[in-house]
Amino acid sequence: MKKLLLIATVLMLSSLLLVGCGDSKPESDLPDWVDNPSLEGGISASGSAKIGAAGRNFAKTEASAQARDEIARQLGVKVKNMVKNFVQVSGVGDDQAVDKATSQVSKQVTSQLLNGSKITKVFVDKTAKPKELYVLVVLDPASIANAKAAMKAAVKTSFKNDRALWQQFQAKRADQDLDKEIEKEFKMK
Known about the structure:
The protein starts with a helix and ends with a helix. The chain is an alpha+beta fold. It has a domain of 74 residues. The strands form two sheets. It has a three-stranded antiparallel sheet with strand order 1-5-4. It is extended, with a radius of gyration of 27 Å. 45% of the residues lie in helices and 27% in strands. The protein is built from five helices and five strands, in the order ααβαββββαα.
């Protein structure tokens, strides 16, 4: 009986080893720039979209919008975040009960002008169902230099600039909108 149990155990372990050593899922055939667009240098991002009934150009536009959104977030994001923790203990001794709750609210807003952003690479994954289109969008280095110079000039003159006052008003309004959302979420007064 012990011999039969030993043989069954050896067979089971052998089968588990064979299953574990089987072919693993093959690596993706996607280009490296899809997962790591920074390999292309500069400020860049990738985006993707399924090619559906609207066609390839529609998917290309959707994918490039995603990539440009990512570039805008790389350049600047305004983040508001609130975390609330609640812990309550009731009872005595072994009859104690601990109630704990945590909630988190976060909002991210970005607004960037992307002069000189362009699609530099396109890849269609024909193995995906439906086919999926990937794009690489890169911000032109000359445009980055121009943007830096414009930012420096804007900072120097923004104190008496009507446009800067308008931006401050917009930022304050966005902040108030976020506060309203947080109040709704937590039903604060």
